[in-house]
Design goal:
There is one protein chain. The protein has 235 residues and is of the alpha/beta class. It is built from six helices and 13 strands. Helix 3 links the parallel strand 5 and strand 6. Helix 3 crosses helix 4. The radius of gyration is 17 Å and the shape is globular.
């Protein structure tokens, strides 16, 4: 019997969320993320923030990992002072997701970073971020759209070979690339839109939000890599 690969997706940790008659702390994730994993053929497992030392044990049980979008990375993580336009820190989430990324890279687990997840991948490998740029959102709380052009020969270009419009909502981006990373897509204004390392491990960061669109190809790339990775581990 075919068993779909298990894809872990990191989540928010919020102090106050309301549903039904309840208002209380919650771990949550927009439904687009697990929906995209499922549409691409994977099984989605949500990963709420936990103690960083437990990240390796968590990732070892997965076939693939998605580090989701969310709040700004705390600038101290990449040796910068906070710009006034940078959002409040999410320290527990930063620590947990950086540990997840480190574990995935060490274990060889296929990894997709989305928006904040791409930025954290860059920071995990020693890179830095631009703390504010304009023109990459719609109105407040509304996703914008812009074109992204793949770099020929990249992992990203292998799954999306043509220039395409993507849903975007971010005000930060990659500045200095982390160790071993290369740019695999850019926007018309030069903003780095995708990054990836060399080597056989399937690792990709995208600055936009594929879970807010209908194109499943990026997630299908992760799910297919995860299926192959899970098969190798089982064998």
């Amino acid at each position: 019997m075919h068993v779909p690969p298990l894809i872990g997706v990191s989540t928010y940790l919020e102090d106050e969320v309301s549903w039904g008659v309840w208002t209380m702390p919650a771990a949550l994730l927009p439904v687009g993320y697990p929906g995209l994993v499922q549409a691409a053929g994977g099984l989605a497992a949500l990963l709420p923030p936990d103690a960083p030392e437990r990240a390796t044990a968590a990732v070892a049980r997965l076939d693939g990992l998605v580090v989701a979008g969310g709040p700004d990375v705390e600038p101290v993580r990449y040796g910068a002072e906070r710009d006034p336009r940078t959002g409040p820190p999410a320290r527990a989430r930063d620590a947990w997701e950086l540990a997840l990324i480190d574990a995935a890279l060490a274990l060889g687990t296929p990894l997709l970073g989305i928006c904040r997840g791409m930025q954290l991948l860059n920071v995990a490998l020693g890179g830095t971020l631009v703390q504010h740029l304009d023109g990459h959102t719609g109105a407040t709380g509304v996703f914008g759209s812009h074109l992204v052009k793949p770099v020929p020969g990249s992992r990203y270009a292998a799954v999306v070979p043509e220039e395409s419009a993507v849903p975007a909502y971010h005000h930060q981006c990659v500045a200095e690339l982390g160790r071993g990373l290369a740019v695999s897509a850019q926007a018309d204004d030069g903003t780095v839109e995708a990054i990836e390392p060399a080597g056989e491990q399937w690792v990709l960061g995208v600055q936009w939000h594929p879970e807010m669109g209908e194109d499943t190809r990026v997630m299908r790339g992760l799910v297919e890599a995860a299926a192959a990775w899970g098969g190798r581990r089982a064998g």
